[in-house]
Structure formats: structure tokens, C-alpha cells
């Protein structure tokens, strides 16, 4: 029994040490294959029986990258290429020693990451050693595609192409037809494309490749082979249209009972569409008019107790597709925390929830849920000389809220101004892709019809950035970085709000108020503009067994890009360094092993050390394809200038965070993933987080997963409220209340995916969510820049109970002086429940044309108490009245 357990932990279920040293890419010749003109008829049926295939030479002689690096593939692969004036054709045969019995496959939605066999084609169509256009197919005919974005491929790209597959006595085959109208390439009659072909054979866990490079090399398009002698005619103009119609029915509980604006039941319909104009072989215009994104999966529930906005991933197709080209400020890191990328564009700002509210007292208010996108357009282009160009412009409507006064008279008020969003991107590749330079510019311009909005939102905001990436010594070493300048302007009250925002808290009483010049660094209520700089730099060795990185990240105090991007913090200088060792070659005990160790430090521009840590991690893949990972971080005592939310700087106690994860072989019918971690502070703070995923694959077309998550703990310094109090001489005349917070959150992400064919899928997502927070031992810091706190006693803090018997309001008289003011704040205890989910039936009834049938449901509830009771809260959650939305969306693709 003990021996069995030891062997399981080591993963020694198969295999042995590999004594042979694998070759490097420099020792293997770059392969090439010729495409020939198609002659005779061609039917895309997966049979490869058409005689035209016999005229095309083979791409073969694949080498393994895994598991036996550099050795010939155990299963033979043969690929041929044909073309005509309209399309590129690919015919591939994947031989298998076990014939059809050796082929493993699954059905799934397009672009879904699936286990099983597959073959992938990666094209560098401009042959500049940076491009990646990906087409992948599995034996069930499920497609995956990703288009060239910048220096990587964007999986949101969904071209219209044909594919058919067959499983037979020799293995399996794939036949592809890719219209040239769907691919971007140089305007030259004779083409040579860079090309890589990957084949994965699941039963052997074998990954083989046509153009070889080693696992400890950077690889990429610079090491691709070549597809030669493509001859294509010059491309003229082309138009693709995708109009849609949507019918929508809402059955929801009114937020305001008896409101004249909302009875909870509404029916509506709308029309709109997308336009794609092909302006030559390398230029594309995409536009959308009155877009609808009702088929997009709902955002998960969250309880946010911080001062910062919650980040949600972009899921809307128009903004996801091609978004990689507009990317700026990528953060690459072997190990780092509390580090932000220098992003200048966050597309979810477009169409956001209105930011204003009705100023005049009103009994009932009806405000739009989201801002209407009147229209958006983007132009993308790429040239054979290495230029990449992108521009996006979107206009959102001025939104008004309807309101009714207490005397039943009605009025409306602007809650979001007419706004124009613009982002432009330009990149250029040099030295065969080993040097990339780029610039980006963003602009947000608002037109106000409301003084209240003019005084709360900036009138215009701009940003311009420059980025670079240089690689040398066969891409073993790299230096990347970005620099950006921001400017935001408007009414002085709007700029004052931005100065006082959580990203910087200029109003802090102990902050050094520097002079304002070109860059803004001091609190000034008369300012009508604010400027700042952000920068990031990383130099690294990113190939070989030993790797390292050194990074720095800077935001000046006046850096502000929240109008077009996502920013939670400015005013810092951050540095990080790591060393990593990895063993890529399978041994008697592991398939992969790596260790990382490093440290980081961060200061604000006043010189306060507000982050520091030393850390280490290990990742280990066993021979049975299970994986284990762990990491630990030790934090010293450090400053926190944001804990008091505009008050003086205080300190956070030292502490230790540890985490571990375990994952099983993803090829199995049941897949397990577990993550657990916890933090313990020297002041008694304790936090824990346990989550996992249990995934079932009962059939080749069904995938069910459950993702339970439990987190909670005890915070010893949770912010509650802040007041101006002249008697608080120890704290710059401010009384800042903190408390212990015992909190717990339980959720379960549940998914069911059923695929009836590669073009007909059903996806169901549901998330029950319960969160509670119990505040106690209200306290304050004894002085700035310390961790010491004192708890208010019964003579300083009293509670006023509500009709339910629970405390509803607290009264604070911290100095016990009847002659000075006392302060009140509500009981912050909470118990929040949510159940949200959606079901989406997607049918691509003809290439490029889709029907969506969508059902969304949400149940929410909250109570003013902080204890957690699973049975009580779950019962209350499922007893809550549901809000239901039903949607039918049909689009039709007109193209060629």
C-alpha cells in the first residue's frame, strides 16, 4: 500500500529517462512544400479521393516536440496544398497504427478548447516572421480559428471556411477550403507564406510538428517552414453583410414597486447589422450599426468591498474580434503580484452603464441599463513591408432618465452625455520580426447637456503611447517596454473628483503636495486638466533551462486613463526580479519541473514603501500527466496610503501567503482541478480561498463542470467610514473608522455544454452565490504610519436598534466630549444572495449565418445581517422571484 502511494505521488506510471540530447532548431533544416494549381473538380467531403490531390507534393517528416523531443513522429502525417483564383485547399491524412480505433475525438462548439486528436495550420501570410493565422480541425469536424492581431493570434476571428473530416481504416482525414477573401496577405501575384503544422495524437500524448524547434526555445514564426509558389490574382473590393433581427421579452420584478415607468413585463424588437468591406488584400473595414449582444454570457456576481471598480472581461463579439491589434501595455511575468499592465484601451467603456443620476428629488426614476451604441467602425490593415495599422471609432448616445416627482409631475434628465471614443494603433516589424515598434493614441470626447454631468465627468481625455520589443540570439533574450502620456481636461469640479479618486487620493492630509508643471503632482481644486506618464520595461532571458527577468513599472501621480481604459492605481514605482530553472526533458520521475524565486518592491512618489515581498514557486508534472504546483510569498510591514480612503498613511502588518494546486490528466473522462491558499498576517488577519473544478465528459458531445469556491477569513482592519473631526489631533483632524470583518463567500460556477453537430450547440451557465460580512470591534489607528489600533469602548460607540432588533445605526463620540460633534454611520453588516445564469442555443444554419435562442435568469436578495447560514441563505435564494429575459436573434451572412 505504501509503495503504491509513493509511486502515485512520483507519477511513475510509465516511461523512463531519455539519455539522448534533443536537437535544436539550428540543427534542423527549415522545410518547404509547394502549392499547385487545382485541376479538375473538387468536393469538400474529407475523402481525398479527388484526382487533383495526386499532383500536389507532400508535407511530411514530422518531428515530436512531446513526449520524445526531436525524434520522428510515431504516426505518419501527410499534407498537400492546392489553390485556385478563389481559395486555398488543404488535404491532410493522419495515419494511425490502430486505424480508426486509435482516433480520439470530441464534439464541441467552434473555437472551444477540446481534448482529442487535431491538426493545426499556422500561417505567416506576410512572411515577416510575426504573423499567426490559425486554422485547426479535429476528427469530428470542429473548427478552431484565430486571426493575426499584432504579434499573436486572436481567437475571436471567425472567417467563413469549409472543412470536412472522415475516420477510416488508416486513421483520419481532413479536407479544408479557405476562401482567399477571408485571409489577409500581400498584394503580390506570387506568394510565399511561412507555415507551421502541428498534429496532436491524444492516446499517445504526442505533439508533432513540421518545422521543428525545442521546448526550451522561443520558437514562433521566425522558425516556420515555407508554403511556396502560391499564385493569386489581385484582389478587388468586396462586401460582407451580416444583418440581424432580435425579438426580446422581459419578465422581471420592478426595482421600484408602483413605478409608472416599469411594470416588469416588456416586449421589444430591434434590427441592426455588421458590415465588412474588403478594401484589397490587406485592408478591412468593419462596422456595426445598432449592435445587440444579448447572446453574450452574463457577468458573474461579485461583492466588492474595496474602493476600486471591478474588472469584467470583454465578451461582445464586435469588440473582441481584432482586439489584439489595439492591445498595448502587455505585462509578461514569470512571477509577480500587485502589478498592472499599461493598458490604454478597455472596450467595455463603450456602452457602459450611465455614470450620472437624477439630481432633483424624485419618487420614481427609470434610468437606462446601458448606454446605446449608435455605431462603431474599425479599419485594420497589414502590409508586406511590416506595417500594421488599426483604427476604431464608436459613438454612444446621450441617455436620459425618466423621473416622477412626489407631486406626480414628470421630467427627464441627462445621465450620460453623447460621447465619441477613438483608438488608433500603428506597428512596424524590423529585422525579420526581431524588432517591433509601435504607437497608439486614444481619445474620448463628450458633449454635455447637463451641468451636473459637466461637473462630474471630464470633457475630453487623450493618451498617446510608444512600445517596443527587441529580441536577439535566436530570440533567447528580449527587451520589451511601453511609455504612455495621458491628459484629461474639463470643469474644475470634474478634475477635482479625479484628483480625489482612489487611484491617487491627492487630498491626503499627509501627502507632499508638489508643484504642478507639465506633469500633475499636487492637489489643486482650480485645475482644469491633469497629466501623467506611465512606463513599463522588462528585460529577460526567455529560453534555455535557466531563465531570468528584471522589470520595472511606473505611474506618475497624475496618470489617468480611466475614460478609455481601466485603471485602479497611479502614483507608484515598482520593480521585480525573478530567476527560473526548468527541466523540459522527461525523466524517470517527471515530465516537467520548474522552480522560480524572486522579489519585488514598490514605492509611491512620496517615498513610502507600499509593497515588498520575496517569493518562490514550484511546478511539477508527473508521468501520469497529473500536475502539482505551489508558491509562497512573505510580506514585510509596509505602508498603505489607500486604506483610509483619503486619510493619512497607515501600515499593513507583515504576513505570509501560501497556495497550492493540483490537476489531473485532462484526457480522462473525469478531470479534477484544485486550488487552495491562505494568508496569515502578524496582526491576526487570516484569509483563505479554496476552489476547484470537477469536469465530467459522459459522452463525446457532452461536457459538464462544477466549480465550487469558498473564500473568507477575518480582516483586522476593514474600512468603514471617515469623518472630519477637529478633535482627532492624532490623525490630521480626521476620524477614520475600521473594524474586524468576518466574511465568507460560497459560489458554484456550473456549466453544461452539449454539441449536437459542429454547427448546433447548447451552452448553459449558472452561478449560485452567497456572501456575508459581519463587522465588529470598531476601531481606529492610534497614529499615522503604524499598525497599532485601538478599539472603541461602550462609552465611545453606541448602537441604535431597528424594529427587527438588529443594530441599524452606530453613534460615535470618540473623545467622549458632549461639546464636540458625534458621528453616525449605518451598520455595514450584509448578507447577499444571487443566482444568475443563461442558456444559449446556437445554430449556424448556413456558413456565417446564425440563430441564437437565449434564456437569462437572475435572482437576487440581501438582508442587513452578517451571519452565514447555508441552509437559510440557499432557501432564500431559490425562493426569490426570478427575473427572466428571453431572446431570439437571427443573423444572415451575405458574402462571397
Unreliable stretches, pLDDT < 50, 5 or more residues?
1-19
Number of strands: 47
Secondary-structure-based class equals: mainly beta
Main sheet overview? 24 strands, antiparallel, barrel
- Average pLDDT: 89
List the helices and strands and how they pair.
Blueprint: H1 2-10, E1 32-34, E2 36-37, E3 63-66, E4 77-83, E5 87-95, E6 118-124, E7 133-137, E8 143-148, E9 153-154, E10 162-168, E11 171-179, E12 190-201, E13 206-209, E14 225-231, E15 237-251, E16 265-279, E17 283-289, H2 317-320, E18 364-366, E19 373-382, E20 387-396, E21 399-404, E22 410-416, E23 418-430, E24 435-447, H3 451-454, E25 460-472, E26 477-489, H4 492-499, E27 529-541, E28 546-555, E29 572-583, E30 592-603, E31 609-621, E32 627-635, E33 638-640, E34 650-652, E35 655-663, E36 670-681, E37 686-699, E38 702-724, E39 734-757, E40 760-781, E41 789-791, E42 797-801, E43 807-812, E44 823-826, E45 830-846, E46 849-863, H5 870-879, E47 883-891
Parallel strand pairs: 1-14, 2-4
Antiparallel strand pairs: 3-13, 4-5, 5-11, 6-7, 6-12, 7-8, 8-9, 10-11, 12-13, 12-14, 15-16, 15-47, 16-17, 17-19, 18-21, 19-20, 20-23, 21-22, 23-24, 24-25, 25-26, 26-27, 27-28, 28-29, 29-30, 30-31, 31-32, 32-35, 33-34, 35-36, 36-37, 37-38, 38-39, 39-40, 40-41, 40-45, 42-43, 43-44, 45-46, 46-47
Amino acid at each position: 500500500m505504501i509503495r503504491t502511494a509513493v509511486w502515485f505521488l512520483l507519477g511513475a506510471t510509465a516511461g523512463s529517462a531519455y539519455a539522448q540530447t534533443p536537437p535544436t532548431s539550428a540543427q534542423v533544416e527549415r522545410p518547404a512544400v509547394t502549392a499547385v494549381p487545382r485541376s479538375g473538380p473538387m468536393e469538400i467531403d474529407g475523402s481525398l479521393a479527388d484526382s487533383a490531390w495526386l499532383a500536389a507534393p507532400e508535407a511530411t517528416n514530422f518531428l515530436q516536440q512531446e513526449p520524445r523531443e526531436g525524434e520522428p513522429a510515431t504516426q505518419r502525417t501527410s499534407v498537400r496544398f492546392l489553390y485556385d483564383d478563389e481559395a486555398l485547399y488543404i488535404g491532410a491524412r493522419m495515419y494511425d497504427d490502430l486505424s480508426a480505433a486509435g482516433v480520439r475525438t470530441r464534439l464541441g462548439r467552434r473555437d472551444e478548447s477540446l481534448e482529442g486528436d487535431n491538426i493545426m495550420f499556422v500561417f505567416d501570410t506576410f512572411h515577416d516572421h510575426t504573423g499567426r493565422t490559425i486554422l485547426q480541425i479535429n476528427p469530428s469536424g470542429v473548427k478552431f480559428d484565430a486571426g493575426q492581431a499584432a504579434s499573436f493570434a486572436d481567437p475571436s476571428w471567425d472567417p467563413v471556411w469549409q472543412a470536412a473530416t472522415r475516420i477510416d481504416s488508416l486513421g483520419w482525414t481532413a479536407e479544408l477550403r479557405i476562401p482567399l477573401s477571408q485571409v489577409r496577405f500581400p498584394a503580390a501575384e506570387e506568394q510565399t507564406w511561412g507555415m507551421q503544422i502541428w498534429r496532436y495524437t491524444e492516446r499517445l500524448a504526442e505533439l508533432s510538428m513540421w518545422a521543428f524547434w525545442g521546448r526550451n526555445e522561443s520558437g514562433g514564426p521566425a522558425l516556420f517552414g515555407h508554403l511556396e509558389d502560391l499564385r493569386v490574382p489581385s484582389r478587388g473590393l468586396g462586401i460582407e453583410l451580416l444583418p440581424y433581427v432580435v425579438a426580446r421579452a422581459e419578465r422581471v420584478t420592478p426595482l421600484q414597486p408602483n413605478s409608472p415607468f416599469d411594470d416588469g413585463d416588456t416586449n421589444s424588437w430591434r434590427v441592426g447589422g455588421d458590415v465588412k468591406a474588403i478594401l484589397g488584400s490587406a485592408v478591412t473595414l468593419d462596422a456595426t450599426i445598432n449592435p445587440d449582444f444579448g447572446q453574450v454570457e452574463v457577468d458573474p456576481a461579485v461583492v466588492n468591498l474595496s474602493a476600486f471598480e471591478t474588472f469584467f472581461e470583454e465578451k461582445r463579439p464586435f469588440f473582441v474580434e481584432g482586439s489584439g491589434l489595439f492591445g498595448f501595455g502587455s505585462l509578461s511575468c514569470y512571477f509577480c503580484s500587485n502589478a498592472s499592465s499599461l493598458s490604454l484601451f478597455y472596450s467595455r467603456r463603450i456602452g457602459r452603464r450611465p455614470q450620472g443620476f437624477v439630481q432633483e428629488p424624485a419618487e420614481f426614476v427609470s434610468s437606462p441599463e446601458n448606454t446605446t451604441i449608435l455605431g462603431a467602425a474599425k479599419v485594420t490593415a497589414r502590409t508586406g513591408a511590416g506595417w500594421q495599422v488599426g483604427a476604431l471609432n464608436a459613438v454612444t448616445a446621450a441617455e436620459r432618465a425618466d423621473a416622477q416627482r412626489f407631486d406626480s409631475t414628470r421630467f427627464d434628465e441627462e445621465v450620460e452625455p453623447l460621447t465619441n471614443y477613438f483608438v488608433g494603433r500603428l506597428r512596424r516589424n524590423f529585422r525579420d520580426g526581431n524588432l517591433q515598434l509601435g504607437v497608439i493614441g486614444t481619445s474620448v470626447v463628450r458633449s454635455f447637456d447637463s451641468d451636473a454631468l459637466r461637473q462630474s465627468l471630464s470633457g475630453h481625455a487623450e493618451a498617446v503611447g510608444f512600445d517596443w520589443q527587441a529580441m536577439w540570439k535566436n530570440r533567447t533574450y528580449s527587451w520589451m517596454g511601453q511609455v504612455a502620456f495621458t491628459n484629461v481636461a474639463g470643469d474644475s469640479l470634474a478634475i477635482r473628483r479625479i484628483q480625489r479618486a482612489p487611484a491617487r487620493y491627492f487630498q491626503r492630509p499627509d501627502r507632499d503636495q508638489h508643484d504642478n508643471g507639465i506633469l500633475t503632482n499636487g492637489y489643486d481644486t482650480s485645475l482644469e486638466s491633469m497629466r501623467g506618464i506611465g512606463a513599463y520595461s522588462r528585460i529577460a532571458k526567455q529560453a534555455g533551462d535557466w531563465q531570468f527577468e528584471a522589470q520595472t513599472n511606473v505611474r506618475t501621480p497624475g496618470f489617468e486613463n480611466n475614460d478609455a481604459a481601466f485603471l485602479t492605481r497611479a502614483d507608484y514605482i515598482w520593480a521585480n526580479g525573478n530567476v527560473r530553472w526548468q527541466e523540459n526533458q522527461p525523466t524517470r520521475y517527471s515530465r516537467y519541473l520548474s522552480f522560480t524565486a524572486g522579489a519585488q518592491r514598490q514605492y509611491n512618489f512620496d517615498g513610502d514603501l507600499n509593497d515588498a515581498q520575496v517569493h518562490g514557486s514550484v511546478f511539477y508534472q508527473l508521468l501520469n500527466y497529473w500536475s502539482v504546483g505551489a508558491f509562497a510569498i512573505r510580506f514585510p510591514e509596509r505602508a498603505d496610503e489607500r486604506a483610509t480612503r483619503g486619510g493619512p498613511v497607515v501600515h499593513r502588518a507583515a504576513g505570509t501567503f501560501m497556495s497550492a494546486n493540483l490537476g489531473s490528466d485532462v484526457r480522462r473522462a473525469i478531470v479534477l482541478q484544485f486550488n487552495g491558499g491562505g494568508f496569515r498576517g502578524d496582526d491576526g488577519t487570516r484569509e483563505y480561498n479554496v476552489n476547484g473544478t470537477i469536469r465530467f465528459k459522459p459522452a463525446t458531445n457532452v461536457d459538464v463542470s462544477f466549480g465550487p469556491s469558498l473564500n473568507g477569513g477575518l480582516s483586522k482592519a476593514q474600512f468603514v467610514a471617515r469623518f472630519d473631526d477637529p478633535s482627532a489631533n492624532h490623525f490630521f483632524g480626521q476620524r477614520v473608522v475600521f473594524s474586524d470583518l468576518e466574511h465568507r463567500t460560497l459560489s458554484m460556477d456550473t456549466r453544461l455544454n452539449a454539441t449536437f453537430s459542429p454547427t448546433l450547440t447548447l451552452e448553459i451557465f449558472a452561478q449560485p452565490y452567497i456572501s456575508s460580512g459581519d463587522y465588529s470591534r470598531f476601531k481606529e489607528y492610534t497614529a499615522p504610519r503604524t499598525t497599532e489600533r485601538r478599539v472603541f469602548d461602550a462609552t465611545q460607540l453606541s448602537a441604535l436598534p431597528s424594529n427587527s432588533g438588529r443594530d441599524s445605526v452606530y453613534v460615535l463620540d470618540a473623545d467622549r466630549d458632549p461639546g464636540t460633534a458625534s458621528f453616525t454611520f449605518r451598520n455595514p453588516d450584509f448578507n447577499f444572495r444571487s443566482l444568475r445564469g443563461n442558456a444559449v442555443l446556437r445554430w449556424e444554419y448556413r456558413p456565417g449565418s446564425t440563430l441564437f435562442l437565449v434564456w437569462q435568469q437572475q435572482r437576487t436578495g440581501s438582508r442587513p445581517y452578517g451571519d452565514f447560514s447555508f441552509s437559510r441563505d440557499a432557501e432564500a435564494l431559490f425562493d426569490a422571484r426570478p427575473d427572466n429575459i428571453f431572446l431570439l436573434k437571427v443573423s444572415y451572412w451575405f458574402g462571397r
